[in-house]
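User: Can you recover a sequence for this backbone? Please restate the input before giving your answer.

Assistant: Of course. Working from this structure:
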């Protein structure tokens, strides 16, 4: 595999910095966010590269679990930040954390024990990258689903309360909004599936091919991870939307818009 130097990365970083300036000159108001996100990405990945190199050699199940917990917590926090309207206090963080944990962790453990079967089962080389891919895609889908649900609930408050007044249950009055939320969350996933293989070569497959793995083996791994991603995002979004819908109503099935705050 051909090595990439830090000078190569610095050159590409300068390119992104210049791009931000060009976008700013043309009316893009979030150039600073672009620069900050790029810097944050570089620091986080370099840190993970150093840390994972140590963890891989240590082969300690507690270290792997600690990394998984940190990744889950960070993903849950990012979900709470990506919404126009979010639940107050820690409820939003808990919804994201629970929906990610139930789906991503269970699917990861299942695929490690049943399909890949590494020895030991928590082999960091497999467990950590797979968890990262599941969390990254699930986080995006769950964030979109929750944002659509809460934003639509605020905008359609009068319609929801009118349906409640006509005798419909909380579940019935939220059904259309829940459908919209699931649609918003799953459309990017469906687009990813349609484009894979012909329009684009997914990241995991590309990385393995660049590392010298046989293309057909790289394809098998990519199909496996994409099936896991679809399952994780779909189930995670379902859980998150259901939990959020219930928290929007009290025990007497009255809408509680005041449970939300604008971010």
């Amino acid at each position: 595999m051909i090595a990439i130097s830090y000078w190569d990365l610095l050159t590409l970083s300068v390119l992104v910095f210049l791009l931000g300036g060009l976008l700013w000159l043309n009316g893009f108001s979030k150039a600073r966010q672009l620069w900050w996100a790029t810097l944050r990405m570089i620091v986080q990945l370099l840190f993970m590269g150093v840390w994972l190199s140590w963890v891989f050699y240590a082969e300690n199940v507690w270290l792997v679990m600690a990394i998984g917990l940190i990744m889950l917590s960070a993903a849950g926090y990012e979900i709470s930040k990506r919404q126009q309207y979010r639940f107050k206090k820690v409820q939003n963080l808990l919804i994201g954390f629970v929906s990610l944990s139930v789906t991503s962790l269970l699917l990861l453990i299942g695929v490690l024990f049943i399909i890949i079967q590494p020895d030991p089962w928590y082999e960091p080389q497999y467990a950590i990258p797979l968890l990262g891919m599941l969390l990254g895609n699930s986080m995006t889908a769950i964030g979109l689903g929750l944002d659509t649900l809460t934003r639509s609930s605020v905008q359609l408050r009068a319609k929801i309360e009118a349906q409640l007044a006509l005798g419909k249950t909380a579940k019935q009055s939220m059904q259309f909004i829940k459908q919209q939320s699931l649609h918003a969350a799953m459309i990017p996933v469906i687009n990813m599936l349609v484009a894979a293989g012909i329009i684009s070569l997914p990241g995991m497959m590309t990385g393995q091919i660049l590392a010298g793995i046989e293309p057909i083996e790289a394809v098998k791994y990519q199909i496996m991870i994409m099936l896991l991603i679809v399952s994780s995002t779909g189930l995670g979004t379902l859980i998150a939307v259901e939990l959020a819908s219930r928290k929007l109503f009290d025990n007497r099935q009255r809408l509680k818009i005041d449970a939300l705050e604008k971010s």
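That completes the design. Residues 1-58 form one domain.
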